[in-house]
Design goal:
Number of helices of chain A: 10
Order of helices and strands of chain B: EEEHEHEHHHEHEHEEHEEHEH
Structural class of chain A: mainly alpha
CATH superfamily of the largest domain in chain B: P-loop containing nucleotide triphosphate hydrolases
CATH topology of the largest domain in chain B: Rossmann fold
Number of strands of chain A: 2
Strand content of chain A: under 5%
Strand order of the largest sheet of chain A: 1-2
CATH architecture of the largest domain in chain B: 3-Layer(aba) Sandwich
Radius of gyration of chain B: 23 Å
Number of strands of chain B: 12
Largest interface: A-B, 26 and 31 residues
Helix content of chain B: 25-40%
Helix content of chain A: over 70%
Number of domains of chain A: 1
Distance between the termini of chain A: 30 Å
Order of helices and strands of chain A: HHEEHHHHHHHH
Radius of gyration of chain A: 18 Å
CATH class of the largest domain in chain B: Alpha Beta
Shape of chain B: globular
Oligomer: heterodimer
Chain lengths: 255, 293
Amino acid sequence: MSGLALVGHQFRYDQKAFWRNPASVFFTVMFPVILFLILALVFSGEDVNVRGGIDATTYYVPAIMSLAIISATMQTLAMTLVIAREDGRLKRGRGTPMPPWVFIAGRVGNSIVVALMMLILLAAIGALFGADVPWARLPAILLTLVIGATAFCCLGIALTALIPSQDAAAAIVNALLLPLYFLSGVFIPEDQLPNGVIAFADLFPVRHFFDAFFDAYVPAGGSAVSWDNLAIVALWGIAGLLLAIRYFRWTPKSG
Amino acid sequence: MVESPPLPDPVISIKGLRKSYGETEAVRGIDLEVNRGEVFAFLGPNGAGKTTTVEILEGYRKRSGGEVTVLGEDPERAGREWRERIGIVLQSGRLDPYLTVRESIDLYAGYFRAPRPTEEVIALVGLEGKVEERASRLSGGQQRRLDVGMALVGDPELLFLDEPTTGFDPSARRQAWDVIAGLRDLGKTVFLTTHYMDEAQRLADRVTIIAAGRIVARGTPEDLGERDAGETTIRYRRDGREVVTRTATPVKTLHELTAKALADGEELEGLEVTRPSLEDVYLQLTAATEVDG
């Protein structure tokens, strides 16, 4: 098989394994949906004082989409790669003629496809709650998604180097991401966060991705493509890629 | 001109192999050759340097010294073409729990240029009844056989099996042994590491014993059994006490013993004559070196 056909081959089996894994399906697919439904029901009818005032449902659609995309990419990759590494599956795969990058590409492809599906799913559910799908902005939305998803994939792969064991994976990933979701205005609208919190969150990529995704999705904003935010997200991604190239391990701790 | 008979074709050739981890020397200068089509057992206790050696041969680890050739190439520099020709079963490793037997084999089949048909591989490892079962629902023995199947799907010339039956119950071991014995019939060269003497005896054409990073014995299972053949043990009970005699001339000793007993009108209760088993030889050989290992 050629390189690309091999990636497709790997991707097919990664998809099967993803959808059969109850933890992936719950945390990556169900959890963002449940979260959106709760937030949309609790805050329905309220206004968020952002961009001249928008309704809460409209705010939470791009917010939870950002979370879902980061979960499908950074979180899923970090967790499943650590599990595969400590199971010895990465090492085993390296013993075959398959080029190592094919394995990573298959996983990244899996993450990006799941991220796209979550975009569609949440857009549909959001529309049921009155958050119109901004069709005219589709190119900007997809561009933002692809840049963000790729960057967070790189960060997820880099993060595996900091995770020593399968048991530590969920704890480390959540300890990093959950606070950032709060501080970046994903759970609590940013007009209700104390001063200075957003400035702090601006040091990290979650906030910039959310900001860019919000600009792309909510027509009340200005330009659909938030180049400055995307540039910062992309820089984080490049940093992640360099760290991943330097520190990614194929072998389990015990050999 | 008369053609000389072809020289035996070494699939693996190791000369003066050394490997250190910091201060510790795990492998202290070993030489060995493995010929085409043989099942070679690398036998030794835990920590003897077996896995270090096999992982150097597989290209996973870099050696500290010596020469290594596997299928004509240095594993440290060998590439994709070389990997088409070898199969690897790691000592510890779990399979993707969410893929079925067929999917696991199909996935690996895609990695090789000319894979063996999936159905054929499944039959070789005796998992015909479990084709649609997910790996997580297989027993430990079945998972290991699937692992062997994944290593076989590329139709390799050379197969590495690192302690393939460690931790198995007797029936799972026997099934794994049948699979490995079947590999010889396919003409595969097999490099097997194990710490079970009976496994080496049962499966291997040649056995090399390693202890504390050095080779302490080598030969066919029969040759190794002949070592110390002089020592035969005779046991019996007299007045309720066990008497143990070791002798290099068992026929003579036994004759004298039974003649005396007959003359005295005594019965030699629980009389037993045993030659050292391969296990005894192995334990004797490895015990001496274990202290500094």
